[in-house]
Amino acid sequence: xxxxxxxxxxxxxxxxxxxxxxxxxxxxxxxxxxxxxxxxxxxxxxxxxxxxxxxxxxxxxxxxxxxxxxxxxxxxxxxxxxxxxxxxxxxxxxxxxxxxxxxxxxxxxxxxxxxxxxxxxxxxxxxxxxxxxxxxxxxxxxxxxxxxxxxxxxxxxxxxxxxxxxxxxxxxxxxxxxxxxxxxxxxxxxxxxxxxxxxxxxxxxxxxxxxxxxxxxxxxxxxxxxxxxxxxxxxxxxxxxxxxxxxxxxxxxxxxxxxxxxxxxxxxxxxxxxxxxxxxxxxxxxx
Length: 287
Hints:
The protein is α/β, with parallel strands linked by helices. The protein is 58% helix and 10% strand.
């Protein structure tokens, strides 16, 4: 284990380089353990085996919490073993206790890129470029080479949506694989489909702006214009329209303005300056 190129010992002095910086290139699994912890010792050989078996698709970093008490306190480690997965410099998931190997594999596979993921990314780029037939061919290639990739399901949802079958895409999304049920991409995709449905029969953005100029209290026009802005990628414009709707006619459409703002937050990954700013404004408008 000590000689494995995929296993490192992390200390307070080396953590930034060994974990934070490395996680920008490859996922890092941090095992917080202690010598007195029997479950830790049961888990260690499983993690070591997987680190070698995955061959560098992730790095295993071991933190002895007895020697690195301040580091354990910083990450609020309250029980052992605790295993956190870092990506892009941040902890993104964790589990506690000595899980069976099969469950740890499932945990890892949610975060470790597969070769077919690259093909699916290409399919998404083709969809954005308006080339659905080529995207369908790429998805078929990924399905043939890696039929167990759960992200195939999301690619097929996007393909249906691109073909104009929003209802079919929404129905397919409701059958998302269990391991993706809480994936932020699923929430974002659900929002995309919702806004696509809103604009399906809506007037153009220019026509909607004309309606609002004639009647600023036209709540439907404001809501549809916000959806048009989302589809165009103008999230700030959309949030601004929805905030105005929230202030002027909160009850319209069964609280539609607030729900739409939350969907946009999901589309944006739930973080960032824009989300923070408009989440604060939404809260102020509500209370």
